[in-house]
Write the structure tokens for this entry.
Amino acid sequence: MIEQQLDSYNPAERRQALVALCQQVEAGKIKLPTPGTDVNLHAHTFFSYNAYGYSPSKYTWLARKAGLAVAGIVDFDVLDALEEFLEAGRLVGLKTCVSLESRVFVPEFASRVINSPGEPGVSYHMGAGFTSAVQHPFLAEMRAAAAQRTRDMLGRVNAYMRPVELDYEKDVVPLTPKGNATERHLCEAFERKAAQVFPDPAQRAAFWKEKLGDAPAAGAKLQNLIRAKTMKKGGVGYVQPGKGSFPLMADMNQFVLESGAIPTLTWLDGTAEGEKSLDELFAIGIASGAAALNIIPDRNYTPGVKDQKLQNLYDVVEVAEKHHFPIIVGTEMNSPGNKFVDSFGTAELAPLVPVFLRGAHIIYGHSVLQRQSGLGYLSPWAKKAFTSVKARNEFFERLGRELQPANEDRLRGLTTEIAPDQILAKIH
């Protein structure tokens, strides 16, 4: 019952529940495991869309129960979960970090698909290691543009779905804790509305058959089909994006840098023309400030199969290592059926675990030092303190590995005159 309360839309109730769980831990009624080597730094919360309804507090608690070494969240176009997640991590003794995801346009790839299927020049892109919910014009514009895209899409899909039509304010917004509705919220709302308009299952199935060509069982299959048939390429709600549809990658990188976070390239699976041009993709990203890479491992291999997709994964890791990019990994949980954490024990992923764990520790170390003193991974202090990216990585990895959440305050108020070894001495 207490865990269920963690997903309340009331933030006070979520915090009350988390405190109650921590009290049970202190009383010995709940035993938490020693953190291991598994990580998930790419979990979406219900502030953009989580298929299981997880709040930042709920994900924090479950990650600590699962013994994750580091846990991170990433939401689309908003940082609404940041303060809650970082505070929750401190409460439960979990190493945490916060990222932001959106879509950008890359002019140099205007004629090539990168990692947004069927959309040349458009790329999913991230900022990793945000430490405050910044009041930045770029972030406000991202949120407003995302909301307008969702509203516009709903208008087009509504016209097709009649008599099953949604009222954005009444049917969609209540599915979100802070109004950041996505395509996936629309799909859930359409499923609910159809059940109201057609309470008879046979009539409802006939409706879906007419509109979607099939009538799968309620839930994930139906919602995914709604999205595929009406909101993705070829669907009535889809509009082909191009230059002007999304901000330039360079502009998003500038916002991320100004916010004290790390501009981060994202990787799908290496099958599109754009992702095949690995060296060019990295060079363009680096030129505008990119310094890390995000991968969703579960998309990049089939257990027991050595195929081109797996080789692509190994290839991009190799290139990222060559550029000394910390690699951030995790599963999204924004679609039913997504894992809570990747299967790092598989033969395909096991060789990469040290690389993934190193990246997680670097981002955590950056997050704490940036939040406490402004001395993060790409800060002027870091650029002055380290003679190479390799040396910088070694420091932030060690900091993230050895620092414990209970000791984060020891790094507060440090000056730019401090040396790296002095920082490490403070955390023990």
